[in-house]
Structures are given as C-alpha cells and as structure tokens.
Amino acid sequence: MDAPKEIFLKDYKLPDYYFDTVDLSFSLGEEKTTVYAKIGVVSRVDGAASPLVLDGVDLKLISVKINGNELKEGDFNLDSRHLILTSPPSGNFILENVVEILPHKNTSLEGLYKSSGNFCTQCEAEGFRKITFYQDRPDVMAKYTCRIEADKSLYPVLLSNGNLIEQGDLEGGKHFAVWEDPFKKPCYLFALVAAQLESRNDTFTTCSGRKVSLKIWTPSQDLPKTEHAMYCLKAAMKWDEDVFGREYDLDIYNIVSVPDNIGAMENKSLNIFNSELVLASPETATDAGYAAILGVIGHEYFHNWTGNRVTCRDWFQLSLKEGLTVFRDHEFSSDLGSRTAKRISDASRIRISQFSQDAGPMAHPVRPHSYIKIDNFYTVTVYAKGAEVVRMYKTLLGSQGFRKGMDLYFQRHDGQAVTCEDFFAAMRDANDADFANFLLWYSQAGTPVVKVTSSYNAEARTFSLKFSQTVAPTPGQPVKEPMFIPVATGLVDSSGKDMPLSSVYHDGKLESVTCGGQPVYTTFLRVTKGEEEFVFSDVPQKPIPSLLRGYSAPIRLQSDLTDNDLFFLLAHDSDEFNRWEAGQILARKLMYSQVFNFQKTNALVLDPQFVHGIKCILLDSSLDKEFIAKAITLPGEGELMDMLEVADPDAVHAVRKFIKKQLASELKQEFLNLVKENRSSEKYVFDHTNMARRALKNTALGYLASLEDEEITELVLHEYKSATNMTDQFSALAAIAQKPGKARDDALADFYNQWQHDDLVVNKWFALQSSSDIPGNVKNIYKLLSHQAFDLKNPNKVYSLIGGFRGSLVNFHAKDGSGYKFLGEIALQLDKLNPQMASGLVSAFSRWKRFDETRQNLAKAQLEMMVSTNGLSENVYEIASKSLA
Ligand code: ARG
Ligand code: ZN
Fold first, then answer.
1. Beta-bridge partners for 198
2. Phi, psi dihedral angles at 644 (to 5 degrees)
3. What gap in Å lies between CA 183 and CA 161, rounded to an integer?
4. What is the DSSP letter of 801?
5. What integer pLDDT is reported at residue 1 of this predicted model?
6. Which atom of ligand 1 is nearest to the CA of 378?
7. Secondary structure of 805-853 in HEC code, one letter for each residue
8. How far apart, in Å, are the Cα atoms of 236 and each of 55, 103, 615, 721?
9. Closest Cα to residue 731, out of 629, 821, 661?
10. How far apart are the C-alpha atoms of 181 and 331, rounded to whole Å?
C-alpha cells in the first residue's frame, strides 16, 4: 500500500479546469460495462497548460481523445488512481475517454455495482472515479446527459438524473434510454439504475401549480410496502414549500429501493435508498422504522435545495449540506409528530454518540481540518452536531430571522459550490446579527463543559447565574477558546410556575429581555467567555433555574441544582425537555452511586424518592404518553460509562439491570395497568397518538419482563401471540428475550419461522440476538454468522448482526477478550469486500484507553493486528492508526 496521504483543508485550491458538459454513454453487460464519456473542458486560467489530473480507480482505459485526436503514450500518465494529461491545449477543448469496468465484481457499494441482479450507483463521496476518469470533486459542476444501453428483458427500467428525452429498442434484445439533467451538478450526485423493478406512481402539484410525477421503484412484490414512503415524500414536498418556500424543480422524482446500499442518497431526481428506509407495512415494520422512513425520505428530498442546488465547495464542508439537511429533517419530523419527543431523541444521540466521539481519538470539528478517507467523516459530529449548530442560528435569530437567512443563502448561492462561512455570512447579513465568535463551532472540536452556580439575593431581589466553560483538548487541538453558547433559561417559582423575566445585568449593563414590551418566560443568555455572570433583576422569591431549555446548545451542563430542585423540575418545569432532563440527571446520579456499591461488593439499593418520582410521572394523565415512555426509561449503559474514570461495563450493566428490575417490582401494578390500558385491537395507524400509546405499553412490558414471575412470562407471551403489528410483536419478543431459557429460544425460533421470507424482518431478528446482554453471547453470534440468512456482503445484515453486537457493552467488552477478537476478525474479512463498512466497525475500538489494563491490552492487540495487515484499506488504516496514536 502507498503510504496513505492526509488531505488538508488549508491546501484547498480552485481547479485549473472546469467541466461544462458531460455526456455519458453506458453499455451495460454481464461480463463488463463500457463507459464512454465526452467532457467539455474549460480552462480557468488563461493560457495555462498545467496538467489535467483526472481521478480514476479500477478502470481499464481503452482510449482517450482530445478534440477528436487519440492520445498516444507520452501524452498522458496512468497510475492506479489517476490519468494525467500532461499538456492539454490551452483554451476550451473536448475530452473523450472510453473505459471498461466490472460492476458485478464491485463489492464496495460505491461506483457502479450490482444489487440483487440490478445495476445501481453510489457516487458520494468519491465513487464516480470508479465509473470514469474525472475531476472527482464537488466544485466541478457540469450539465449531464446519460445514455444507457442494456438487455431489455433483464433491465426493463433504465433511469438516470433529470428528464427522459429519448428511448427505444435496439438489436439483439437490447434497448436504450437517454436522460438529460438541466441542472449542473457535481459528479457525486450522478446516478444510474438499470433494473427489473416496478413503480408506485403518484403526483404532487407544487405551489406554483406544476405537476410532478412521483415514482417509487421496488421489486413488484414489495410495491404494497411503499405506501408510507409515498406519503412521506408528498409530506416533505409540501413542508419544504410551507416552511422554507422551496419548490421542487423538475417534473419527475424517482426513488429506487435496493437491498444493498450504504443508506440513502440524494442523487438529483433519482434518490437511491436502502430498502430498509423505504419499505414498511404494519405487520413488518415497527414504529421506529416508520419514523426513520419519514426522516430519511424527508432528508434526501430536502437535499434538493440544501446539497444539490447549493452544494459544497470541497468535502471538508460536508456539514454545510448534512448538518443543515439533518436540521431540516428533524424539524420536519417534529412538525409531523411530537416536538418534545423528537428533541429528546436527538439530544440523546448527541450526548451518547457525539460526545463519545469528541472524547476519543477520532474527535474532529464539524468541519474537519484533515482526513485520509472522507468516508470516515460521515460522522455523528458532521451530521448531528452540525445540525445542532444550525439549530443555534435559529435559536439566536428566531424563526423569522432564520428564514430570512435561509432565503438569502439560496438567493446568493443557488447553483454554486460554497463553504460554511458562506452560510454563516448569509445568516449574519440577512439579520444584521452580531454572532461574536460563533464560527468556532465549525473549527473547534470537543464538547464544551459549562458549569453554572446560582445565588439569590433576597434584599436586592436579584438572582445570579455564574457560568464558566472549558473545552477539553482533542487530537491536534491542545488549547481551546471559549465558545458562543446560547443558554435558554427560565426561572421557576415555588408553585412551579415560570416567573416573568424583564431584565438581566450582564457585562456592566442592564439589558432588557422583554419582547415587544412584554416580559418573557424563557430568555437566551449569550455565554461567550471563559467566565461570566448574569444577574436577573426584580426576582421576588428564590427561583429554581431551568437551564438550557430544549437543549439549546450541544454542551455538557453541570449545575448546582440539588436533588430536591431536580425532583421539583421533574414534576413542574414548563419546558418538557427539562422535565425529562431532570429525571435523567437524577437517574444518572443514582446509578453512579450504585456503581461504587457494586465495585465494593456492597448491596445495591434504590432510593425510594426516585421510585416515587417515576411513579408520579407514570400516573400523570396530563402528560403525553411518548413523553412518559421516554421519561421512565433509564439512561443507557454507555452514558453511565462516560461518567466513570475507568469504564466498567460489568458494574454499569449490573446496576442498570438492578434498578430496572427493582422499579418493575415496586411499580408492578402500575406497569400492569399501563399494559392493559394501552392495548388496542384496532388497525395500525402511524400517528403520534397511537405511536405514543404503543411506546408506553411496550416500555411497561419491558420493565415487567425483567421480573422472575410466571404470571408475567404468560403475559408477555400473550402479548407476543396476540400482536397484530410488528411494533407490538417485536417489543414482546424483545421482552421475552431479555432472559436466557426455553421461553426465549422458542420465541426466537417461532419468530424466524414466521418471517424467514422477509429479509428486513430477519435483520431485526439478527440484531435482537446480537445486541443481547445474555452472558457469553459471542458464541451465539459465531453460530449466526453461518446462518443461511446471513451474508457478509449485505450492509443491512452486517449492521444487524455485527454492528448490533457492539450494542451489548458487557459482551463486546467481555474481559476474556472474546468480543474484541470476534470484531477484529470480522472487520478484516469485511475490509476485503467493503472498506467503508469495515472501518465503521473498527471505530468500536476507538475508546479502548477508557478501560482497565486487561481490556486495554486486548483491544490494543486487535488494533495492532489490523495496522500490520497487508493490503489493509485506507479506511480502516485511518481509524485503527488514529486509535493507536
Ligand atoms: N449524502 C448521503 C446522505 O446524507 C449520505 C452518503 C453517504 N456516503 C458515504 N460515503 N458514507 O443522505
Ligand atoms: Zn444527507
């Protein structure tokens, strides 16, 4: 392997050559595919004759021509990654090349490959170079046509971006289609599909009255399962018009569902989706699956404006499109479901996954400074923290100000490839805003930790909040600066009501915080310094502060609230997010204290006040049921591990299990009532009310099933057998599967028997088993690897069975090293097939230094074994070597 090269943002240079037009012609074959490309090249620099460097990987060059003249050896250099035209003519010219590729041998899921017999593509980030020689970078934008020629009976459907302008039959049982995309685009948005599929058809009439033809393509037997996806697509199109004034811009929108795909991809007018993110029926998909489809169909649709019409200058700017589009899909899902419940899930993801990334060797800013493989940076930091950064603009500017900023962004940059600063500037300029050092959110990695102490002065009737903030060092960034953090704050009085807020003393000035002359109940404190104080005036009694309402910034907040304060907020805060948060803080404190009991082999105990707090939430009929389900769910083991000096998976697991079981035992009657009251025999409906009801019932069932109790086993089995939809059936199965034994084995066998014909359901069955905490589970996973339904080439199966295994902290981190050994072996096997998937798995090792010495040595040995493997991919190399550093 050539020494992997690190690429730096600071080295960005404009391309010397632009491409204006690209005409592609594919002759698709079973043995090989021929790709002809004709590119209109425009030289950016007058009279320059700098070499034109084209990217190309796994391509067999047949010929290359400039202005119709075939180039001879000496006119170009060819290596395993590039075709370099040494002295192209000055001025504009036509470049033509012909290559051969082998899609049926391509297991990387990038470039042109075969999925279940059909041809499809995935070009983001750098897959287009596996199709033809090209300047594979997003700031090269061109207008494309694409002609596809293939066997008609095998591939009756031929699709590419834009509009179909010609089609017809050819000799030898072949046919062809020509597509033309009127919008210029970077090559990562190119797509082609040649397949045996059928479509669900619908139409959407845009706000200006244009009729758009909508098609969702799947194998014919799956068409009934596309109803939900079509509903989501139309809802997304309408929402983007209503909320952002963005109208769809072509007459056709295709979504193709394939079983093998990295996830979902926003190719212009030809989205390609993993079938898991398209197909759903009540019997086969859970509420979580339905919700994921809503979010992702929305996400890829919203990319049409944030990503496609305005794209990224270079891959360091990935969050420009991903953070913004995730923010948009979060807002979409909130508007269609419950805002609080969505906010809780999204904030949890930040705190569990993103903070963990920040604390490890792969910590990087929302806009990374360097990478070896950009594929390794499709991360929770770029996506989810990036979305939080966008959310902060909205928090600071309000809905209207944010909309003005978005409008200006589109107005300025439609058709361009731009940077995160351009987005920042649009927000600032549209609002004449003072954003202080807000840009640091893009460049500084790590989680800000904010400490708050409060004090009340009865005489002066003032209430003070003192903030201090730090950001821990991350690789390559030893010294950090203070960030700009909007802290949404309310003051709660002793009756549980919000106090009216009118002015705050800060930085030597008394500032009014009223809105239109009226007092407000939540104000946004702008914390920008290492240390600073805010003093509320006219505060008639000692309040309890409700801080960081709605999780107004992606930070870790440490306040001096007492347990009593927290119980009070849990019961009364008008900000539902903070009610949930208060319960979680209490639960974490409680679990944390029990970890030490466990480590000292003391008996574990459960604080009765906590049980009471949970009970009050359970019985509060004024609360939303999905909220209750979330509020009674204990923080995950990972969150607790993050609080410990030395991660101790055994202790954390034992403590969480103990508290869960103890709560189940003390609140058994309440949980039983919840199960009974929230059953429904009616037809499955995907709406908030019904989802919330199912969530609450199934959460209660999960608690009950932790008890050793014949009667409960009967109940759970009854729920399993009487379920009429997958949400209920699968929840009951998961409840039964908590404990090893015959009931578990029988239920798992029964479930497989019932669903073996449906791959997507079988994946859930794999994941349930692989993520199980039952002792010594790794040997079951080895067995499942050779199960007839498993296939290392299919990403969904790999995520379910192997990715799922990482979900069980006790088993993955087993002290005998069996979990590490398993993952290390599989990652290397997978690396030969699909480096992107392999490096995803390897990241599970990245926090190895958090563990005790025994585990450290075992994990380190796996990483060392990887980096010393011959032929290791750059993807895995980057993660493994950075983890060892
Ligand atoms: N742009 C796609 C999305 O966010 C994801 C592409 C993933 N590509 C990759 N190489 N991981 O919807
Ligand atoms: Zn995206």
1. 218
2. -90, 145
3. 10
4. I
5. 52
6. 11
7. HCCCHHHHCCCCCHHHHHHHHHHHHHHHHCHHHHHHHHHHHCCHHHCCH
8. 36, 33, 39, 36
9. 629
10. 30
Q: Which one-letter DSSP state was computed for residue 206?
A: -
Catalytic residues, which ones? 300
Neighbours of 720 (CB within 10 A): 22
* Exposure string for 102-137, b = 16+ CB within 10 A, e = fewer: bbbebbbbbbbbbbeebbbbbbbbbbbbbbbbbbbb
d(CA 214, CA 83): 39
Which residues, in sequence order, are bridge partners of residue 264? 273
β-pairing verdict for 252-258 and 211-218: parallel
Is the pLDDT at 234 greater than 60? The verdict is yes
* Residue 725: count of CB within 10 angstroms of its CB: 21
pLDDT interval class at 250 (50, 70, 90)? very high
Q: Taking ligand 2, which is a single-atom ion, which protein residues have CB atoms under 5 Å away?
A: 322, 325
Q: Is 266 in the pocket of ligand 1 (CB under 6 A)?
A: yes
Percent of the chain with pLDDT over 90: 97
Dump pLDDT digits (tens) for 523-538: 999 999 999 999 999 9
Structure-token pair, residue 856:
């450290």
What tens digit of pLDDT does each residue of 26-39 get?
999 999 999 999 99
pLDDT tens sequence across 418-436: 999 999 999 999 999 999 9
Q: What is the mean pLDDT of residues 323-335?
A: 99
- Using alpha carbons, select from 823, 820, 752 the residue that is nearest to residue 790: 752
Q: Which ligand is nearest to the CA of 272?
A: 1
In angstroms, the CA 131 to CA 121 distance is: 9
What CA–CA distance (Å, rounded) separates 22 from 551? 46
CA 13/CA 46 separation, integer angstroms: 16
Q: Give the Cα separation of 643 and 631 in Å (integer).
A: 20
Q: What is the distance between the alpha carbons of residues 274 and 267, in angstroms, rounded to a whole number?
A: 14
- Whether the per-residue pLDDT at 719 is higher than 70: the answer is yes
How close is the Cα of 302 to the center of ligand 2, in Å? 9
Scanning 217-267, the segments in alpha helix (DSSP H) are 227-244
Residue bearing the CA closest to ligand 1, atom 10: 375
Cα of 723 vs centre of ligand 1, distance in Å, is: 36
Task: Give the pLDDT band of residue 48 (cuts 50, 70, 90).
Answer: low
Helix extents (H) in 723-758: 726-736, 742-755
Tell me the Cα Rg of the chain: 28
pLDDT number for residue 45: 82
Give the Å distance between the CA of 599 and the centre of ligand 2: 43
pTM for this entry = 0.98
User: What is the SS3 assignment for 410?
Assistant: helix
Tell me the per-residue pLDDT of 567-604, one tens digit each, with 9 for 90 and over. Answer: 999 999 999 999 999 999 999 999 999 999 999 999 99
Exposed, middle or buried by CB within 10 Å (0-12, 13-18, 19+), for 401?
Answer: middle
User: Cβ(189)–Cβ(272) under 8 Å?
Assistant: no
